[in-house]
Amino acid sequence: MVEFGGAEPDGVEPEALGPGDPSGVDSGADAVGPRRRDRGWPNQRTLLLYLVGGLLIAAIPVVVARFVDQPPGDTYTIDIPPGTAAAIAAGNDVNVIPDELDLTLRDVLIIVNRDSVAHTIGPFEIGPGEQSEHSFNEVAAISAYCSLHPSGSISISIGE
Question: What is the spatial distance between Cα 8 and Cα 80, in angstroms, rounded to a whole number?
């Protein structure tokens, strides 16, 4: 007989309880040693871990190749000279920037505003006397307002 919470008398071994024992307690051992369960094929969690690990191993070189050993892009500088806003207000074509900019990933766009008025070029607003630098990390097509064009718009294309 097995008593819970008490010690067995000397020389008396507790009974081994099996899976069919009404107490529901399994000792997990038999006369040879601990029982092992033959699992056969890996379970779903193990297969999922192998799958995720394999995908990570395959994705790492692709990600690294995108950023390592890539040639640097070109640098484009837009210089807005003093008096540009006054010239635009007088109806003059200032020809500071083309209507369409075609850039690629890794290119750098530098905008220098030497005018006394803030200017907007697409998504970029540059205050008087300021300089801004922009690099691009995703492909995009932008059509937006531009204060330097009589039409009021500019198209910026960022490709591979």
Answer: 95
